[in-house]
Amino acid sequence: MSESSSENLLSSVGHSTQETEFYTPYPPGYEKGRTRYVVVLGTVMSGLGKGIFSASLAKILKDKGLRVAPIKMEGYLNIDSGTLNPFRHGEVFVLDDGMETDMDLGTYERMLDENLRGRNFTTGGQIFTRILEREREGHYLGRDVQMIPHVTGQVKHTLRELALTTQADVVFVEVGGTVGDYENGYFIEAIRELAYEEGEHSVGIVALTYIMEPRALGEQKSKAAQLGMRQVMQAGLQPHIIACRCPTPVTDKVRQKISMFSNVPLRRVFSMHDVESVYLVPEMLREAGLDREVLSLLNLHERVNQRAEDQARRTWQSFVDRLLEPKEKSVTIAVTGKYAALRDAYASIDKALEHCGVHAQCHIHIQWLDSTEITARNAAEMLKGCHGIIVPGGFGARGAEGKIACVRYARENRVPYLGICLGFQMAVIEYARNVCNLENANTTEFEPNCPHPVIDILPEQKKIEGLGGNMRLGGKDIMLKPDSGVSRLYGGAPSVRLRFRHRYEVEPRYLEILERHGLIFSGHAPNQPIMQMLELPAEVHPYFFATQAHPCLTSRPLAPDPMFLGLVQAALRRAYPQRVFENLIGGKPPTVSPTDRPASLNMS
Ligand code: GLN
Hints:
By secondary structure, the protein is an alpha/beta fold. The chain has 19 helices and 21 strands. The model is unreliable at 1-17 and 587-604 (pLDDT under 50).
């Protein structure tokens, strides 16, 4: 927050002679009523796909030419998601500015096809840190600092600042968890205050709920949903729109019940049943008329650009058509990580492959393999039948030897390989051990005193201690070696910007011996000997690439990442050696992309 905006927050406290109960923290320059807000709240249970719903709604408004800005608010007290275990929370999504966020931000970026920033994500930890800093700075001038108005005031200020800095027509606020959770109570109260202060037609409350369909009864039951709505109303919020998640289309009878118990007109109670792919959700919402209801509710009809919408719909529709087209070819890609049991831990790899499947018109079967179960002895058996192998990012020694065994198998058997971050480091270790004969080469992350620390902590990070704050994070440029395989993959570009999240890197002392033995480092940081891409020459291996970055984070439905697409195409060549495939990579960014998904909508 800038100095001037904090002063304005102070002036709005309204103490001294002008004592008032109102606490309306407007950042300077904020124009009340210009930006509207759509708040998406969950009821009944989490995991209903609030993020997908909210991102799809934001997308259909963006398609109309409106400027949208999403924000996810998490009640937990961590400052960001960087220290969260992917096993519990799903993958940590890294934004271009280095903010480590919840995986929902990935959903927004993919759906909206734009880069978000730290300001699009906040946590209880951030809100309270700010409050405590301000308290120490003496900003509250003798008042006791309270949940209401100060904490809620800080939340409102965060939202208004987002509105102001993005000049959005609509800010989409997604509150994590469900209404009634103890830890997000102050967010919900802040929304109530925001709706009151911003005035009519400014804040739309959308409640997402769940209609149960117990198998034993064979019919839809709405009681839990009704109780959920009651809880929203008890918090002082009247929902304007209700979206009912359900495996099957919600019946009129159930919609009527929900409508009548929640004071929401029937036309604003929507069925949001499972569909084949999340990318069908925007059109489903549009067809149900949700966009029109939001425009009327927020009085935004006059800001719509019909031509922009027609164009955006056509582009999206052609992508969806390709996604739904039956695929004749199929490849199996192994993803070997230690969280293989939990797909969410590798959500963006899953998505990046999905994008490639649509673009390359093939079904991609992802074989999730637990690297802790792979050994040098069983690697061949475990990886049998895979047409491509991905070793994903990760931290800690558990499962590492299994990953190294996978790299060796891929390299020696000419199986297409893509290493991501830790998968890049594992490729270097494998090459050092088995090709350069550097016995027991390793990373100091796993073995601080190993004889050949080919991967070591980054020099600039060496001084910094402790978790959090010492990671190389966010979007960075990578200089690509001219005429290398990666430079071809990225269409001959001299550099590419990808996102990073790592502490360790290739120890520069070992570059000479690795390169002498044939490993090509084809991408590095500008002005620094930090190696960021490696490859084997095409005459040695059909597709052996790895990067210290996470290209999956920037893969988009309409523009799959070229390293992933290259892997899928190499896998296709392996699976169908007799066929000739059109070379889709190395040109302009693809125009169309994702896959045939399993038949249910993964809304988590
Ligand atoms: N653990 C490795 C490092 O810190 C790799 C990190 C990752 O894969 N995200 O450098």
